[in-house]
Amino acid sequence: SPVQKPVHMFYQIQLNDDYEVNLSFSANPPPTALKWSFGPSFQDMNNHIQIPIENRKFSTSFINHNNGNYQAYLRLTEITNEDIEYHFKLHVANEMGAADYSVMLSEAKNPIECRKGFFMLDGSTQCFKLYDEQIRTWEEAQTKCQEEQLLTAKPTDQVVATLRKYIFDKNGDGGVWLNA
């Protein structure tokens, strides 16, 4: 049966531009029915678009890659606010079952996806990784702070401190701070 995936978000959609949604999916046996639908929510999709079709607002097409993989295209002409507010769905069925591929459009910038081992704090625009380096003596802490261009370390009752380092995923820049 067709393999279903989570909602696909398409970002940086510009009003008044044309935009083509390209969905890849797998199905074995091959699809026997394909149809695009749209509406104000995924539960309310009363508008249907056949595949293939070409009219003033929509054009659709379908490609069979002959290996169980397929692509369906939905091209929207002159994107409006209403188009961006709509939810779109590609319905794929074969003799084994059916799957719906949900699509939403957004004017927002594409959110950053972090590589494995990197993460992003709320409000941040970069991915980074943290790692700790143990410091065993006060002299070592002072030396590390100078090497890493930290603010001057202040002595505490604890002898051991942690030098916390970070490195950004995209540009390799980094920094450090001292947890005393």
Can you offer a commentary on this structure?
With 180 residues, the protein is mainly beta. The protein has two domains: 8-105, Sandwich (Immunoglobulin-like); 128-179, no CATH class. Helix content is 8%, strand content 43%. It is built from two helices and twelve strands, in the order βββββββαβββαββ. Strands 1-9-8-3-4 form a five-stranded mixed beta sheet. The longest helix is centred in the last third of the chain and has 10 residues, at 138-147. The chain is elongated, with a radius of gyration of 26 Å.
What labels would you give this structure?
180 residues; mainly beta; Immunoglobulin-like; 2 domains; five-stranded mixed sheet; disordered C terminus
Helix and strand arrangement:
Blueprint: E1 8-10, E2 19-26, E3 33-39, E4 47-50, E5 53-54, E6 58-64, E7 69-76, H1 81-85, E8 87-94, E9 97-105, E10 128-135, H2 138-147, E11 161-168, E12 174-179
Parallel strand pairs: 1-9
Antiparallel strand pairs: 2-7, 3-4, 3-8, 5-6, 6-7, 8-9, 10-11, 11-12
InterPro entries: CTDL_fold, Ig-like_fold
Organism: Meganyctiphanes norvegica
Protein name: C-type lectin domain-containing protein
Q: What are the low-pLDDT stretches, counting only 5+ consecutive residues below 50? A: 150-162, 176-180
Number of strands: 12
The helix/strand order is EEEEEEEHEEEHEE
Structural class: mainly beta
CATH domain class of the largest domain: Mainly Beta
CATH architecture of the largest domain: Sandwich
Number of domains: 2
The share of residues in helices is under 10%
Cα radius of gyration in angstroms: 26 Å
- State the distance separating the first and last CA atoms: 57 Å
